[in-house]
Amino acid sequence: MRKIIVAAMISLDGVMQAPGAPDEDTSGGFEYGGWVAPYDDEVYGKAMQKQMQPTDLLLGRKTFEIFENYWPQRAHIWPGINDVTKYALSTSRHKSDWQNTVFLQSVADIQKLKNTTGSDLKVWGSSELVHLLLNNDLIDELWLKIHPLTLGKGKKLFDGGAIPAAFTVTESYVTTKGVFIANYQKAGKVQTGTIGG
Questions:
Q1: Which residues pair with 101 in a beta bridge?
Q2: Looking at the predicted structure, is the pLDDT value of residue 160 above 90?
Q3: What span, in angstroms and rounded, lies between the C-alpha atoms of 171 and 65?
Q4: Do 157 and 10 touch, CB atoms closer than 8 A?
Q5: What is the rounded CA–CA span in Å between residue 110 and residue 17?
């Protein structure tokens, strides 16, 4: 069985929209595209290199189309991006010129894919897909880069709710510019109790 890993750049208030460039995703009137750029440093760069190691990708349609128009010509920045399989959830797209692309139609397709053998499946961006995965208990790990700013509005990581679950921190550190990088692995059901009891 494959793990599904969500690798997300988020603000303190959970916004994950358009971290990479001003025109990346302006939907909903979002005007802060490229908000991650001021937080780049050597520590952040090393974290990104590690997280961008070649593995199959699982993307929502909108993020897939952003990637499809950007990454094929920039494989020197993301080695292996053209070689891995890109699985995109879409009911409107059925083919792409980007090599190794497979379109999925439903949650059932994702569940079937998860139950196959192969590399882990990393989700980048894709807020609507992340909400769908959270609601169907299909996420195994969250790799979060939490930036020290609030954006007020925009697409958020947990906007669509989530099934209650406990997570264990498997790795965490802070960059020189205050970005908290933490990897969380699903650890079963939520435990409750009384503080001091």
A1: 86
A2: no
A3: 31
A4: yes
A5: 23
CB 139 within 8 A of CB 72: no
- Here the tokens at position 193 are 């109790």
CA angle 182, 196, 173 (to 5 degrees): 15
Instruction: Give the model's pLDDT for residue 161.
Output: 77
- Report residue 11: phi and psi, to 5°: -85, 175
32: number of Cβ within 10 Å: 17
Q: Which residues pair with 15 in a beta bridge?
A: 156
| 8 A C-beta contact, residue 75 and residue 82 | yes
29 Ramachandran zone, left/alpha/beta (phi>0; psi -120 to 50): left
**Other residues' Cβ atoms within 10 Å of the Cβ of residue 118:** 12
pLDDT digits (tens, 9 = 90+) for 29-55: 999 999 999 999 999 999 999 999 999
The amino acid at 13: D
Please tell me what DSSP assigns to residue 79: T
Question: How many C-beta neighbours within 10 Å does residue 79 have?
Answer: 12
At which residue do the structure tokens 């697409």 appear?
155
- What is the distance between the alpha carbons of residues 106 and 89, in angstroms, rounded to a whole number? 7
For the chain, what percentages of helix, strand and coil (3-state, to nearest 5) are there?
A: 25, 25, 50
Averaged pLDDT of the chain: 95
- CA pair distance 139, 119, nearest whole angstrom: 15
The helix/strand/coil state of 172 is: strand
